[in-house]
């Protein structure tokens, strides 16, 4: 490299790092409840007497009318109440930062977890393979946005299907994995050498190399300080809470995170599901506390971060002979933050009474919103993706109205 | 002692089935008795295969040119990089002779590789029998089998082509029951025809049980006129496997192709996993595909006719030639070379060998040295080969691939892992950490002999060795000044408290930083390229 080139290059380097430093991008966090969550017991339609008829043992008591030794649900509006274990998220709802879209689902008729999760994560209509996951396509369409090694993160050891096909995606359990695995005390020398090696690159490898080095430096600084959640947010020790804590760290570290996915399993409650206590209530409690801590920790980032909580399908409206519920259809989806027009439910309550006679596929809450309509609105209204028709080709979303009316 | 005796016996039996020379066999037998005290079958195999050439040779000749050595380049694309010593071997042999040898893989003795990779039962069984295994076991065995062959096979070009066709005829083993059948697909479709004839490859794939499940061919029927054929496989056959998306077929052609393909089923009880044709489910009418009429009443022969029509279409020749040139030469396939290769496709009715030979001997190929970026799979395999690593591809190693997003047979959609560099550029950190873990012996159950390698590259036993001397072994050319400067940065920071070093800072072969210095070379931009 000639002297002149080197100078130009160094100048360039200085500018480019300046340009990269502040990232004001939006972040989407997807929490997928695996197993088909019974959202009817999370957002309880207490005003519908059929709900109580169909669920004699597992229904959640209406607000203020508790059975002995059981807590009542918490009133949200004239129709719905919260499962008592979701109390931690009540303020989020009341402050208008959480919207619930009722009766969301897909056209998948199989009732199979695998098949339906796959279809939803791929963002497809039943039997119509597109290629990659819906978030993978979203990120590809945003390729003009700078991609970093942490643009897309799947918490855990494998990359979730929704992110497949993304330009770059990392699976990790913890931010602590973001460091050079050198011998003790060698990482500084190694990083310096890598900085030189990639600094003189001019081709495709140049930017990714510099990004990775910058990332390591940033995370190094974070490690040095340890992590202290803000606003007294207290993350529990379960996988969801730990994962959300790592996501919060990533967001604050400003390392270019655009999408983070995290799974929460164990919602397939065919057998002794429980009501205010029990199998599902334990899951619900974890979910509630995790969302509460995440929301508090990220108070400064509320408009920037959108969190969605979804599942592959809801469950039957009536309980089965083993005090659980079988695979159903529609479920409620949560959209939190990102300027959402929250504090309310979208999609009218049409009751559970006529569901039993539904012979077409597994019965349950009749689907009012194709899941892609919700995801489309999240992408276009909250993440400003103007090519949503390419993320969900051959699908025309009907507006639901929870996204802030924005001009990008 | 009993179990150890048994493992010795197993190995002995497998050695018996390979075609290794009598002398090697005798040497092997001698080793077997001494190695019997080792604790596991794998240690035993390592000892045996070391003797069969899977080790670091005494001396390694490296490139002394500032440009990438042409043979190194050839081995970087038509193989997973040179095994230590290969460069010299192939140079002696000559480029043309090596290509000819590689084009006839069955004639290459691969006994040592088979000792490592041939031990996985489920890979060799038919789908009916694999149903008796756990999915996780089959998955693990299939992946290990493939990875070990990529690393150790002497039939390197075949392995590289296996990766190419595995992407081209992608099947995701996580879909439905595909995992039970992918082993058979790998054996009887991909590996069997990797360097064979394209028509035969597609025909075999069309009635491969794994493909019938993956693309819903086994759902495709027209027993009654009102039945709508399932177009999934028919569409991908035209769009991905043969003509290509802009190959000039219409939606009507897709429909007609799907009609031709109705009626293929997989037994699910008796003869489980075996494919058969059910004429009751087949559309018996006449079809018109790509302007050619397939008369009524063809029955199961409709599939043959369809495959023939699709494979003979000029767009198919162009599509396959383009994909091969993209994989082996450049992300922007050169039109002249594509035309030449597709003409060979047409003239030979899809003979893969002459197409391959044409590509590897072309000017375009020669000029493309170092201009492609390795995908994660290629990166990991070339790292292992360059160090003559000793591994059995346990989960810990495979996990690195999964983390970089390229776990074998796990791409969800039928278009296969992307061939362009861009989707893989976010994996640098994981590459660096793999390189550092590998050279520091921190990848569980993967062993490397750094000291031995360093001595083989620079055989003056007493002298110290510098990064500049090591670099050519890994990238096929001398290190550049800026590379040397960067390596020195690493060394001097680690020796700052000691004496000042001169320009060619070096380490003794036993220095604890030598492995990491090699890790740094494997992390460098030059080693990401091929």
Work out the helix count of chain A.
Answer: 11
Looking at how many chains there are and whether they match, the oligomeric state comes to heterodimer
Largest sheet entry of chain B: 2 strands, antiparallel
Question: Which sequence of strands runs across the widest sheet of chain B?
Answer: 1-2
- Measured by DSSP, the beta-strand proportion of chain B falls in under 5%
Briefly note the CATH topology name of chain A: Alkaline Phosphatase, subunit A
**Rough outline of chain A:** globular
Total strands of chain B:
8
Distance from first to last alpha carbon of chain A? 43 Å
Description:
The complex is a heterodimer of chains A (about 400) and B (about 525). The model of chain A is unreliable at about 1-25 and about 355-360 (pLDDT under 50). The radius of gyration of chain A is 23 Å and the shape is globular. Chain A has one domain (about 25-390): Alkaline Phosphatase, subunit A (3-Layer(aba) Sandwich), CATH 3.40.720. Chain A is an alpha/beta fold. Chain A contains 11 helices and 12 strands. In chain A, the strands form 2 sheets. In chain A, strands 1, 5, 6, 7, 8, 9, 10, 11 and 12 form a 9-stranded mixed beta sheet that branches. Chain B is mainly alpha-helical and about 525 residues long. Among the domains of chain B are: about 1-50, no CATH class; about 315-365. Helices cover about 55% and strands about 5% of the residues of chain B. Chain B has helices at about 1-15, 20-35, 40-50, 70-75, 85-95, 95-105, 110-115, 125-130, 135-150, 155-170, 180-195, 200-205, 210-215, 230-240, 250-260, 300-310, 315-330, 335-350, 350-360, 365, 375-385, 395-405, 430-440, 450-455, 465-475, 480-495, 515-525, 525-530; strands spanning about 265, 275, 285-290, 290-295, 390, 445, 465, 505. A two-stranded antiparallel ribbon of chain B has the order 1-2. The longest helix of chain B has 18 residues, at about 135-150. The radius of gyration of chain B is 25 Å and the shape is elongated. Chain B starts with a helix and ends with a helix. In chain B, about 55% of the residues are buried. The model of chain B is unreliable at about 1-20, about 30-40 and about 495-500 (pLDDT under 50). Chains A and B meet through helix 6 and helix 7 of A and helix 22, helix 23, helix 26 and helix 27 of B.
